[in-house]
Amino acid sequence: MSCCAFYCEEKCVETYIDHIKNVLKAWSSVKSYYKKPLNRVVGAYNFDPIAIALTLHDIGKILKIYKIPRYRYMYRHEIIGAYVVYKILHDISNDLAITLSLAVMLHHEPAIIGAYMGELGERYLTLTTLRSILENYSDMLVIDEETCNIDTLVQELASLKEVAEMRDKIFVVKKTLYNLNSNILDIIETMRELILASSVGSPFKLNVLRNKVATLLHMLAISDSIGAYIGRRSKCKKDNDEGTWIIERIREGAEPISIDSFMEVMF
Q1: In the predicted model, what is the mean pLDDT of residues 254-265?
Q2: CATH number at residue 203
Q3: Structural domain of residue 76, as residue ranges?
Q4: Contact between residue 5 and residue 236 where contact means Cβ atoms under 8 Å apart
Q5: Domain count across the chain
Q6: In angstroms, rounded to a whole number, what is the distance separating the alpha carbons of residues 54 and 21?
């Protein structure tokens, strides 16, 4: 049983581990260009923060609720990804945990602002709305064990060389996911901390944090977009195989390597 990262309607067309391998390959192809800005933004660690974020950014997709098409906009998998990243990093560095979790939470920002908020008929994503959604669908905030063997997935993720230094932390992910629907208040409190950190304080403090998040978000979005483009082309008839606007910008020369160079690295 393979945990899924991408569905075409109800059919899984890309497994979670395949998607993560693809996004990590994409990141490795540009990492050398971004290493200095990354160290300036978050400092130097004995592990790669972007690789950790990429490994877990879509972890909310392996829950039962995401398998049901009509719930995919209402339930935002990024919230669970941000929560899991925060839980495994906050005891190492709370600043890093906040910054990286915010980047994970925003890696599909257009979907949150557009389709999601439009569906709810609200201008902002509030904690009360988020809590209501999580509580109303708590029975589906569980691993889809019919199609996802979490033990196998955690073993596969922990074996990735890009996160070798954080292997013990990756194994903690299983416990965090198993306790989601009994820890909704903790999820809300974590989101509250992330929102307060990015919205309350001096203008200087907020500008520094927001610039850090924007820098990390760029690295996540580029790697995720390339990985998804490579892994999902021609697998869903309703999708445009030309890729997202990020892919279009890369074709126009927005990144240090070309789309063809990405393709060579990926294959």
Answers
A1: 80
A2: 1.10.3210.30
A3: 4-266
A4: no
A5: 1
A6: 9
